[in-house]
Amino acid sequence: GLTFTAYPVIGYHNHLQASGSCLDSASDGLITACPWDSRIKAQFFHQTSFSIALSDAKDFIHDVQTLVALDPRSMCVIDQYNGILIRYVTASNAYLGKQEDGLDFDLTYYRSKDPAMPRLFEDVLEEIEQMAVFKYGGLPHWGKNRNVAFEGAMRKYKQGEEFVRVKEEYDPLGLFSSDWTDQVLGLRGGLMIVRDGCGLEGLCVCLEDRHCAPGEGFFCRPGKVYKNARVCRNI
């Protein structure tokens, strides 16, 4: 109910995170709807986010810089205001907390509403993603990633098994679980969904060209810096 008048802006985060006055505007046929309102076709993007241990952060950043130097244009696809957003995080004794002090990396990038549509410089972001979670053992953000980032995630937590034990004790009927959470926690099936085009959506790490979009010129290829990566590259 308050109108912003001047800086500094001080208050609770749920009151600060807004776009103009869209959160409390009068009903006006969605003219002043927030850009993230699912009822309108406004902002549409994807995020890849992970934590790298402080001991590995320098080497990871160096690898990313080496990859980007091969074609500096490749970073034009991420959010122009944040770039690669980096935050410091501290270790926690929570079962699924950070295992040691580290850095959070957030990449926000365009994604077509058509999941079969390849992205510009898709291979570069895929290589960064695989480099982070596989080469450097990065911990995925639980709400911002594709299937690939969660592959083997629970093995990275020293107390992962204890978390599952407590979860089952407090929620024996699985009321707060779903097929997705069971897959992420390694309790049911696998996370990789192998089919045509699966590499485009991060449902799999591509192994064959059909996992990309060969009809659009995107083929499965090794990474340029992290050679063990398998990415969909425009040839």
From TrEMBL:
Keywords: Oxidoreductase. InterPro entries: ALO_C, FAD-linked_Oxidoreductases_BP, GULLO2-like_C. Pathway: Cofactor biosynthesis; L-ascorbate biosynthesis. GO terms for cellular component: membrane. The keyword Cell inner membrane does not apply. Residues 195-233 form the L-gulonolactone oxidase 2-like C-terminal domain. GO terms for molecular function: D-arabinono-1,4-lactone oxidase activity. The keyword DNA repair does not apply. Residues 45-183 form the D-arabinono-1,4-lactone oxidase C-terminal domain. Belongs to the oxygen-dependent FAD-linked oxidoreductase family. This is L-gulonolactone oxidase. It comes from Linum tenue.
